[in-house]
Amino acid sequence: MFHPWLETGEEKPMREIHRLTDRQIRAAVLPEGKPRLLLPDGGGLYLQLTAGKDGVNRSWIFRYERAGQRHDVGLGPLHFRSLQQAREAVRALQIKLLDGGDPFADRQAAQAARTAAAVDRAKAMTFKQCAVACIEAHSDSWRSDEHRSQWLNSLERYVYPVIGDLPVADIDVALVVKTLEPIWKTVPETASRVRGRIEKVLGWAQVRGFRSGDNPARWRGHLQELFAATSKLSPVKHHKAMPYADVPAFMAKLGARDGLAARALEFTILTAARAGEVLGATWSEIDQAAKTWTIPASRMKSGKEHRVPLSPRALAVLAARSTFSDSSAVGLRIFPMGHHGMWRELAALEVNATVHGFRSSFRDWCSERTSYPNDVIEMALAHTVGNKVENAYRRTDLFEKRRRLMNEWARFCASPVVAGAVVPLKSALQ
User: Fold this and answer.
1) How far apart are CA 141 and CA 147, in angstroms?
2) What is the DSSP letter of 156?
3) For domain 127-233, is the CATH number 3.30.2010.10?
4) pLDDT digit string (tens) for 130-189?
5) CATH homologous superfamily of domain 244-413?
């Protein structure tokens, strides 16, 4: 049982020191209903008991007065500093007080110095470090790994050599201009994207407190006064497209080729989809019975779920692919390959067109050879149709009409180049 002065935390009238024992400090408990208790050892040293989640916490405190003001200096928990070590620490602090020092003021000064050092380190964050963190923070919202690669490649090629290792707080207009000037006229479209990415990184750094002031990479009312608009420097380059009349002959050659890339390209053309949508397609997105491919919103450029009607030919491609993979596996990609495979397939067939260009071929065929309304055609291409008001009242995606359209497109793609010719689908697909 402790004496009353232990429960109140008050010093005994006598100037005693070394009152506590190891046994006492480990056996001490908090009185019921009391969240905190000080047990004096003498000379200003106290064992502090506080209520914790896992029981009683024990720590040391040195209490002293300076200029009429009381100060408590923490000396750490009991499990880090024993009773004897706490007494030695207090003795050192008492000597400092006798010499005119102030332990509490020293603690405050040390904390202020650490804070200032942390601020300096934060300000010293380089542009590259901020860019890496910015990409990491936003990449989860990007729809493909390709977007992340484009960011990284453009920064590594055009930005890091100039400002990558500089403190992000020091990036100003002159440095941004120095980065963009060499590429603004030679690769204007790329330069415009690079400017936007620099602005994004600097904006991220400002919100995180690594820099302050206006964003030197902003365009409107700022860099637009220093650079010509990229749209006026060079015409927009559209994806090279194959004339739709040449598609059947090409599809005959493509159908005769083996390999995963050939099948992926064929499926892309038959569905008029984007390459990234096809390469990211999984078996769980396919409904064989309903003859439908449902692309989730997270993988769509529009950010909205898109249903694609599958023609018999497109289903045949999938059926052949299912012999090489487990079509029941959730999340398993149908065409596990990189983005360059289909491009290499076009090069092997000596075709002067891009994969994306076949969407234009499909669009031209729709306009020239069918009488389907524009809304049906645009929805087949997963384009946004109409304005916000029209979309608010639209209750259908014209799916059945799009199914008829895609079946007609598939029949056109398979139409023989020479009357009576039949192009079989290769059975051995890899």
Assistant:
1) 10
2) I
3) no
4) 999 999 888 777 766 667 778 888 899 999 999 999 999 889 999 999 999 999 988 888
5) Intergrase catalytic core (1.10.443.10)
